Amino acid sequence: VGSPVVLGIESSCDETGAGLVRDGKLLGHAVASSMDEHARFGGVVPEIAARAHVHAAAPVVHAALADAGLTMADIGAVAVTTGPGLSGALQVGVAAAKGFAYSLGVPLYGVHHLAGHVAADTLEHGPLPDPCMVLIISGGHTSLLLVRDLARDPIVHLGDTLDDAAGECFDKVARVFGLPYPGGPAVDRAAREGDARAVAFPRPLTGPRDDPYAFSFSGLKTAAARWAEQHRQAGRELPVADGAASLQEAVADVLTRKAVAACVEHGVGTLVVVGGVAANSRVRSLAEERCAARGIALRVPPLRLCTDNGAMIAAVGDLLVRAGAEPAPLDVSIDPSAPL
Ligand code: KG4
Ligand code: ZN
After folding, report:
1. For Fe cation, which residues are the binding ones (predicted)?
2. Which of 144, 175, 183, 247 is the most buried (most CB within 10 A)?
């Protein structure tokens, strides 16, 4: 008897994801996004996200099953994101997961969203070495984590952002630069035509007295807004490509510098970069350069596994099942502000 097929459901923000994993292998997945509905508000509107999950939950699960060539009857366990995230959005995914688990008579597992981001990489590159350093960079998080056995050991939280997340910084500055939402991919695209040395944006918290693993991006956002404002007041056209390239360079520099320093300091030989901002081309190239210089193995999952998805939640569920972890009760609650 092999291990069961695990259905993973993710609904913590604006993506409704479903994925199917067995024995560390991705069998199929599907994602629906309400991103377009939030675009004109410049950010995710919780109420709109929650309603979109209601519409997408069942179709996304069916699409994932179709992608895997499986049926409902093949599902042997259900895993769902219980937090952190938007409470209304989480409620919908958890309610759906309980419905599937109860009607199929299979165990239910609650999963921490960030553990999901970490596990995403295992679907592409196999089991994670113990220990490894994980840099999680998304619209909601910027954290450096020391990870041992995901299913058994608590994740050690080395540092976090003191204010905005890296993705939030990209999203907010993109807005000031007149680029479309979501800002991260737009900044990345605009930066291709720009000069990364054009504007000397600050590298926050990189001084000798600063916490080596803490991040701060709100000052960078303010510096970018001030730079744009100076151009407007002078009646000059904004060199958006140069601004985007310089901002991206500053963010990528700080993120990779601290992540590599954390590996060196803790004697860890593998750095895993996950979350939506891991899709950034400069973050990737600078991480490659700096890890290579220090003999650190770098693992970055493919783009489709970097952003929020259900497969990463199924991946954690699969690890929990195989580790013999206790399932969650069917009345498990959401934990919107779940600590690490
Ligand atoms: O992991 P994710 O899908 O959702 C969570 O926040 O949990 O990450 C979304 C974030 C957004 O802020 C988006 O702008 C950013 O990832 N992002 C990027 C890129 N692609 C997505 N940021 C920079 N460069 C990109 N290519
Ligand atoms: Zn995420």
Report:
1. 113, 117, 308
2. 247
